[in-house]
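Board notes (copied after class):
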Amino acid sequence: DDMGDDYYLSKPTTSQSMIFSSLAALVAFLAGLIFGRFVVHIGKKHALMISALFYFLGYSLIAYSKEYVQLFVGRGITGLGLSITCLALSPYISEISPTKHRGKFA
């Protein structure tokens, strides 16, 4: 049985590849302006758990995409997770590290 075109996207154009490649970083940058207060409000540990949810949802959407719009939305969702991870991970590692090792890990 040949899966055919039901499961695979056509080869992306150069523009589609560029959008897909840069979308997560762009969304992460923009979301970072908003999520800073969110991370402080709910705490770094809980924020990291929520970022894992964004990664799961985004990569699931990417994996099951049948259209490029779905790929781009999935990539944007992973960008939200990336934003939260960048804001919360380094300070969280510093907080849980032994005092004599703080600054070495983050």
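Comment from the instructor: The first helix runs from residue 14 to 42. The mean pLDDT is 89.
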